[in-house]
Amino acid sequence: MPDPARIDAILRRAPVLPVISIDRIDDAEPLARALVAGGLPVLEVTLRSAVALAAIERMSQVPGAIVGAGTVLTPADLDAVARAGALFAISPGATPRMYQAAAQHSLPWLPAIATASELMLGLEHGYERFKFFPAESSGGIAALKSFAGPFARARFCPTGGIDAAKSRLYRALPNVITVGGSWMVAAALMERGDFAAVERLARESLCD
User: Is 7 in contact with 44 (CB distance < 8 Å)?
Assistant: First the structure.
């Protein structure tokens, strides 16, 4: 059975989880250093680029960085990110095949749900921790408040359409562990290599 304490121990390390897409491998180390320095050590590197696995390897070498993988779509992805050194994996959804693979894998996995039925399926598989995605277009804060009654054990990492201001509102919910977002690693900042701005935005994310 999945152990909620394993993923909790990771996600509770910071109130915000940067959702990262890296196109240039040379950005990996300075980006990780900037985020860790800004107080956001838990990093989700999405498998959306050709250098994602290499980026996980490099970022994992940065002191203080707790690096995981996002956009994990298949059991093969789960194996690949584990080999790259990821400490956790996150998917944008969940399938019976992924639930089966994760049950046989040592890597902590966070499945995603968007509806009550998907949440019930996850609970049937023994999970109590979920990514809520896409958060804003799936009902946002109102949906999470509604889930709290019938699904009291479930806790969430809402991600999708959330900016700095909205993240504070999500974080106030008792069934939210952390909030996923990419405003502190926006494409324009990455294109310029403005890691000082990344660190500043990361630090500001810690403010209530």
Answer: no
Question: Which position among 44, 57, 136, 199 bears the catalytic label?
Answer: 44
Q: Which residue is catalytic, options 57, 128, 131, 145?
A: 131
Residue at 208: amino acid letter: D
Range of the domain at 93: 4-205
Counting the structural domains of the chain, the total is 1
| 3-class DSSP state of 165 | helix
90 within 8 A of 68, measured Cβ to Cβ: yes
* Strand ranges of the sheet holding 129-132, from the earlier edge strand across to the other edge: 112-113, 129-132, 155-158
User: What pLDDT score was predicted for residue 1?
Assistant: 76
> What is the average pLDDT value for the chain, to the nearest integer?
97
What are the pLDDT digits (tens) for 165-177? Answer: 999 999 999 999 9
H or E element that contains 101: helix 96-103
In degrees and rounded to multiples of 5, residue 16 shows phi and psi of -130, 135
Per DSSP bridges, beta strands 129-132 and 155-158 are parallel
* Token pair belonging to 65: 């960085």
Q: What distances in angstroms separate CA 52 from CA 20, 58, 207, one per listed residue? A: 9, 10, 29
Rounded distance, CA 43 to CA 27, Å?
14
Is residue 36's pLDDT more than 80?
A: yes
Q: What are the b/e assignments for 123-152, b being 16+ CB within 10 Å? A: eebebbbbbbbbbbebbbbebbeebbeebe
Q: Which residues share a beta bridge with 89?
A: 69, 109
Task: Identify the CATH number of the domain in which residue 160 sits.
Answer: 3.20.20.70
Specify whether 131 is catalytic: yes
